[in-house]
Amino acid sequence: MSAVYLLLLLLPLVSAQTYHWGPCPNPKVQPNFNLQQYQGKWYEIEKLPASFEKGKCIEANYALRKDGTIQVLNAQLYKGKVSVAEGTAVIRDLNEPAKLGVSFSYFSPYSPYWVLTTDYNSSSVVYSCTSILNIFHIDFAWILSRSRFPQPETVEFAKDLLTNEGIDLCKMKPTDQNDCGDN
Fold first, then answer.
1. Which whole number is the average pLDDT over 22-45?
2. What is the tens place of the pLDDT at every residue in 55-90?
3. Nearest to residue 70, comparing CAs of 117, 32, 103, 45?
4. Would you say the C-alpha torsion 77, 114, 98, 148 has a positive or negative sign?
5. Secondary structure (3-state) at 68
6. From the centroid of its chain, how far is CA 123?
7. Separation between Cα atoms, residue 93 and residue 89, nearest integer Å
8. Which residue of 31, 80, 145, 146 has the fewest CB atoms within a 10 Å radius of its CB?
9. Burial of 106 by CB count in 10 Å (0-12 exposed, 13-18 middle, 19+ buried)?
10. 84 has which bridge partners?
11. Nearest CA to 148 among 77, 71, 48?
């Protein structure tokens, strides 16, 4: 009975998220992931809804710190103001460097940040999933690009990859990258 109460408490928290019954899928990640090449600015092109991303012109910048962790700077334009969130990413297993963990608070555990594919120069597909007692899972997916306006074929390739890995994209939405001040 306590699992039911836990579910009832968690459901309002995930209302702006994408959740599904059952455990998380286990998609393949980028082989031989190279963090040095992945660093830099990425623009969010499409995503599964996330309560922490409500604005437009969303971008992420990754930089290696001296201690080996990765600085994550996420920025978005929301209600006419730029808001920035700083986090830390870590490679959790050197045998699978494309499976990173990211946290935006000292008090929160690292959440999965899996790079499913990237060519480092133009596009990347990222997936994150958290299973709640293997009863249901909350997932996020992002299609990222080095350009605010990638080719449509790039976006279609990313969506096909996610779908082929068993990730439901029915709630995927484009991110507005217009009138961002630098395009």
1. 96
2. 999 999 999 999 999 999 999 999 899 999 999 999
3. 103
4. negative
5. coil
6. 13
7. 12
8. 80
9. exposed
10. 75
11. 77
Of 139, 145, 177, 172, the residue nearest 47 (C-alpha): 172
Percent of the chain with pLDDT over 70: 90
SS3 at position 63: strand
Q: Is residue 74 within 8 Å of residue 55, measured between CB atoms?
A: no
Cβ neighbors of 55 (< 8 A, separation 6 or more) are 76, 77, 78, 79, 83
Those residues whose C-beta lies under 8 Å from the C-beta of residue 102, and which sit 6 or more positions away, are: 72, 87, 88, 89, 90, 110, 111, 113
* Cβ pair 149, 162 in contact under 8 A: no
Half-sphere exposure of 117 (CA within 13 A, CB side): 15
